[in-house]
Design a protein that fits this description.
Elements: H1 2-9, H2 13-29, H3 35-41, H4 51-66, H5 72-94, H6 96-104, H7 115-135, H8 139-158, H9 176-181, H10 185-211, H11 214-217, H12 231-246, H13 254-262
């Protein structure tokens, strides 16, 4: 017992280094020290710790460094989504009469009530929301009506067409093949549809090659069959959902600078 007490009072160099390691690790978790400061504290030599301890250390170091560029993800999402919504909003305003007719007609359109009001709300949300995304203003607020717009678009315009926006023409490369492997019935039907799409594309390609200037027709891209499913609407919704939780990001958003102005101690 006395020997154990003496050993505790006079730890070995490796035990001391191990204690310094875990102290520094705890400080990192509490954001008191950075991982770089931890490395300096241990003089770059961490003894008395296992390989797992070293992996934890380097993992924390990488996370600490990533904090310097954590603004990149929100900025990329904003700049990707902004022109899409601005373009959609401008198109609705420029084609106002046809949009109102499409929103309200129950036979060949969406059959929504108050179509003029619906077009105004959708176009306004897309245009103003896209502009706000560019500068990162009220990001968490403006993505909410945009998410609602995507849900309405998916449910009214695309739901009956399934998932894919562009119908895959090869079942071997279709993403539905993965779902079919786990027994999803809809995936099997999608693969059957891909086979039929491939047959039609091959027939159309043959006709164009025999009776048209195929090289000129495909100079800007290959022909596809537009399925008009919910894929794009769902993808945009998920990206907007990420912005709802992440916000506009640091440095390159007005939200960040307004927050620093209103809460200087948190800057």
């Amino acid at each position: 017992m006395v020997g154990a007490m003496r050993a505790k009072k006079n730890p070995t160099a490796e035990q001391a280094d191990g204690e310094i390691f875990w102290l520094s690790y705890t400080l990192i978790r509490g954001r008191v020290f950075t991982a770089e400061k931890m490395w300096q504290t241990t003089n770059g030599k961490i003894k008395g710790v296992t390989v797992m301890h070293r992996l934890i250390f380097w993992y924390e170091l990488c996370l600490e460094r990533l904090r310097y560029i954590d603004w990149l993800g929100p900025l990329a999402l904003r700049l990707y989504l902004a022109p899409i919504f601005i373009g959609a909003g401008l198109h609705k305003f420029a084609s106002w009469d046809s949009m109102v007719a499409w929103f309200g007609n129950p036979d060949w359109g969406l059959g929504l009530p108050l179509p003029a009001m619906m077009v105004l709300l959708a176009a306004g949300a897309e245009l103003l929301g896209g502009l706000a995304l560019i500068v990162g203003l009220a990001t968490r607020l403006v993505v909410i009506p945009l998410m609602v717009t995507m849900l309405v678009a998916a449910g009214t315009s695309h739901w009956d067409n399934g998932w894919f926006a562009i119908a895959p023409g090869d079942p071997d490369t279709s993403t539905a093949k993965v779902l079919a492997m786990v027994g999803v019935p809809a995936a099997d039907r999608s693969l059957e549809n891909s086979t039929q799409v491939g047959e039609r594309l091959a027939a159309a390609r043959n006709i164009l090659q025999r009776h048209g200037n195929y090289n000129w027709l495909t100079e800007k891209g290959v022909f596809v069959i537009l399925n008009n499913g919910i894929e794009f609407a769902a993808t945009y919704f998920i990206m907007l959902l990420a912005l709802l939780f992440a916000g506009g990001g640091r440095w390159f958003s007005l939200d960040y600078w307004l927050s620093r102005r209103l809460h200087p101690l948190q800057g």
